[in-house]
């Protein structure tokens, strides 16, 4: 359980995190979404007591992180895969952390095995690939068998097999009753892994809730119809609250109505249908429309993309 | 104010831990553990061994050099006179001034290496109260520096013995004076290491710390020595190297850094250099973003 109350962080006159309040419940995976510079990493660092909030408080399992007798068994964090001295071996790195809590070398070897680092455990971390660095970061997060996991971009740089492994690990940890809080830029990954979302933009919470609810609240659902008589059908179904867009000739997307209603109308008028389907917006589309106005580092390409997605 | 509450099936906190895992429930943070962690950190980096090795090596080399110059000094009637009061132990330990260079680098790297690589975030995540980390680093440095001083002086003693014996200057191991000089040397090196650690924790950058530490420890006395202004000379007396002459006789009779401080004052001044930056660092590091 992570609870933030009015959490604020200012660097000079720039506000990185602006008065946010949230609760991350145990037993589920909470995704933390937001554009670069939205305040995700700053929030995670404040949870870990690495950055001091300008205002507000954040507690983990009821206490500020630094007040726990055994911090590593309360929270395991992957904040930055580079938080390792490159001159040390993976095993030595884990041993230095384990030693502070009297965690056994057996547990060190266990997390090394678990993260698939056995063959490189004695190699210097400086020679590690991005993916191996991520695995080491996850290994150090798991070291204290923590009740809460905070993972900042855990699948960054991992190969497909690694991504799948992280997904299963995260689901399993949540199923064991732990609190899992993870950020990712990969929407498809988030849609598959997270139970609920916390969407942040320019330091404020844009929306929060179960994944599908967030998507629906932003984009709603639409009905796609493909028909040789699409113009005729359009004339029949369009009414109050129904909007029509046409992605290509012979195809229309209807909002504000249901597939049932469209199908019944089509049958009643003897209109041929090639396709009639309920369309759900993807998380990516929902995310783009949510964060459009709060993107810190905007490029022309994403701008165009975002517009298309919302057309 | 943004208020957001995610309500999902908030399942029981007492849900089972993963069955395969080794139990770590009895694990908790202790100062002994933090000490062990810092110890493993130091010994698991090659740079530590390089710095320690070169400290002992440089001390021995300087001692050889000083011993080799004895022939010339003794042959010259101008210098031969002063050689009479020369202390053999001081000769053997002359290398400590250069040893300070490498020891200061070690003291700096112990903390700035963490900031430079990002390791400090792992360290402070494990020990969020932070000050124990600084204390543990200081203790580990004291142990290592004392150890390397013993090795360095031992090495210097062995390699200069044959030369010193020609002039009857081999330091007597049963003389209190010998042990006083050797302990004083170790004291200075330990202080240099801690001074550098304190600066490093404050400045966070390796280059800035090493430059600042070496300037204060070694360069300033000779640079400021040229400025013949009364208050500047007073400052110089309280710089580490001149202050150390309050309790360490100069190994080289031509080099007079004597400050006129008493042995006690000298020891206290050196202790201040070791402790003050560390105390300030402890306060700052606790409050600062990592």
In short:
The complex is a heterodimer of chains A (311) and B (290). Chain A has helices spanning 40-47, 71-74, 90-100, 105-114, 130-142, 160-175, 187-193, 211-219, 230-237, 259-268, 283-291, 300-309, and strands spanning 2-11, 14-24, 28-33, 55-60, 75-78, 148-152, 179-183, 196-201, 204-210, 221-226, 243-248, 251-255, 275-280.
Question: Can you offer a commentary on this structure?
Answer:
- The complex is a heterodimer of chains A (311) and B (290).
- Chain A is 37% helix and 27% strand.
- With 311 residues, chain A is of the alpha/beta class.
- Chain A starts with a strand and ends with a helix.
- Mean pLDDT of chain B is 85; it is low at 1-21 and 251-256.
- The chains are: A alpha/beta (311), B mainly alpha (290).
- Chains A and B meet through strand 2, helix 2, helix 3, helix 4 and strand 9 of A and strand 1, helix 1, helix 6 and helix 7 of B.
- Strand 2 (14-24) of chain A pairs parallel with strand 1 of chain B.
Features:
heterodimer; A: 311 residues; alpha/beta; elongated; B: 290 residues; mainly alpha; disordered N terminus
- Give the averaged pLDDT of chain A, no decimals: 88
Query: Fraction of residues of chain A in helices?
Result: 25-40%
End-to-end CA span of chain B: 27 Å
Number of helices of chain B: 13
Please give the count of helices of chain A. Answer: 12
Shape call of chain A: elongated
Chains forming the largest contact:
A-B, 75 and 57 residues
**Are there runs of chain A of 5+ residues with pLDDT below 50, and where?**
300-311
The percent range for strand residues of chain B is under 5%
Tell how many strands the DSSP assignment of chain B holds: 1
Can you tell me the overall shape of chain B? globular
* Global mean pLDDT of chain B: 85
List the secondary-structure elements of chain B in sequence, H or E: EHHHHHHHHHHHHH
How much of the polypeptide of chain A forms β-strand, as a percent range? 25-35%
**Which structural class matches the secondary elements of chain A?**
alpha/beta
Distance between the termini of chain A: 39 Å
What's the Cα radius of gyration of chain A?
A: 24 Å
**Uncertain spans of chain B, ≥5 residues at pLDDT below 50?**
1-21, 251-256
SS content category of chain B: mainly alpha
N-to-C SSE string of chain A, H for helix and E for strand: EEEHEHEHHHEHEHEEHEHEEHEHH
The main β sheet of chain A shows up as: 6 strands, mixed
